[in-house]
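User: Predict the structure for this protein chain, please.
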Amino acid sequence: MAAAPSPAPPRILLAGDAHGRLHQLFKRVKSVNQSTGPFNALLCVGQFFSPEVGEEDSPPGDLADYLEGRAAVPIPTYFTGDYGPTAPRLLSKAAADARGFTPGGIQICPNLFWLRGSALFNLHGLSVAYLSGKRGLGGPGCYSQDDVDALRALAEEPGIVDLFLTYPLLVPLTKLDGTNEWPAGVVNGADTSKVPPQVLEPQGYDPVVAELVTEIKPRYHIAGTKGVFYSREPYVNDSSLHVTRFIGLANVGNKEKQKFIHAISPTPASTMSSADIHARPPNGTLSPYVAPAKSVPVEDTPKRPAENTDLQYWRYDVKRQRQGQNDGSLLCFKFTSSGSCPRGSNCNFKHDEEAREHCQRNVCFEFLNKGKCGKGPECRFVHSLTEEATVRDAKPRSDRRPVESSCWFCLSSPDVESHLVISIGDGYYCALAKGPLVPEHVLVIPVEHFPTTITMPAEPEAELRRYKNALGKYFEKQGKTAVYFEWVSQQSRHANLQAVPVPLSKAASVEKIFHLAAKRLGFELLVVNPDGDANQGRELLRSQYDGKSGLFYVELPDGTLLLHMLGSREKFPAQFGREVLAGLLSMADRADWRNCKLSKEEEIKMVDDFKQGFCEFDPAE
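Assistant: Here is the predicted structure, written as structure tokens:
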């Protein structure tokens, strides 16, 4: 039998600064889509909104037609940045209506999404990173240091970023002297006969973006602001075998008729062979950059308010290690917050029991670590080490990070059965299930006390993907594949995503048996991601979930997500996922975990056996 043909790579349109000329932009997109499409998405860089001031409470020019339904955005469109006189008001309302962190964009109107801050998301199989905003003194239109640090953390993760979207053009690191005079070194080593004169002008460059490009090493870097189209020859990255293609785009409707829209169709790096990834085009050049010797800070830029501030602290240890702050005088966040640290004696930071006790009393970690807190009145934690001040300064319980001493899954809780833990990462840890359905029944659990994995921030979500990839390889070695499911109710306390391995011979039957079981109970499971991209499916679910409703979802072996949203008074069987898989595996007697309890000695042996096989795949090792 002939092998099935590989799916066609996604087709993406790129556009430069729209400056509010949305009718002209989308007319061109519609024409291109009809003549040479279909295209999967449009990515816009630069200033999307009009520089003109609109009437009070009304968006200027073309935008109003799309927001009020008189015109339609032809294909899914994603834009970066929040600049323009009316942009802050419009986008702050959209942000207020959004639920949780949405790396794949906050919807402004049908088919139009704002990429806020910085993140990495999956777009039709492509790994897309972005930095939304430009260098400045803070406020609307400017990126923050947190945004930059998040991208630097992403740069350390395995895998290749396909596209990197930024507002400013990049600058080489041959002259990072703290001044505003940046050399136009993007053309270093390039064919200068093909370089537009505007590219050689020193204005419009950003050293921070240059650093990020050298660290992230994307296959495509897309930028605007220079007002011209410039496609540089591919260049080879330092310490990496794949090349980067830089594309600068002109403004929409520019009088010079410079190209403001460009089409690409890159095959996702995750599906490419090693030979294709490492192929070098004949016109390739050396990198125009030298490796950064130190970080270029975002001077005087206030941090962007986080959706859940305490969950941002996971960056502390990784960031400080990169910045060389590892003299042992600073506290280890993981130990201080959870009581354990996977680095053990190899950790570069202090494991202080007294600091941990203060942390359990809701004392601010930044205050413990630095003696001061930069968040000011926005901080929800206590800024004193005395018991009296802790009581006096304590915020209402609803505003504080919960300290769950009786939670089964909090690593700091005396009730946690730590002998079942098999791996501890930054944002997630893995443990074997109590009363497992099968011996390799795994729970993937947030380190922080969080009611569902769906509303976790983007950085732990990336770690969750790494754990799922590792478990997939481990199960595959045994001739099995994983089925993941999670039940979320209004009474949910600490999330756990369950992973149950099933034989490959039964993988094709999983979807059918879940649909059949749901039908018998009188509800329907809806398909979230028909294309079977599990990462994209989770992002869709994360962007749409309001954090208030109950839900059940299952991820099938082929990556398809099936979802049931619970009604306000709906009673849902807590063991539904386990019961269905027990039927699939002909283990009806093991549907209830209480019938499958083991002695502690048996559990310890089960964990040891699992670790021996899993250690070669464990992302935390």
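Residues 26 and 74 are 7 Å apart (CA to CA).
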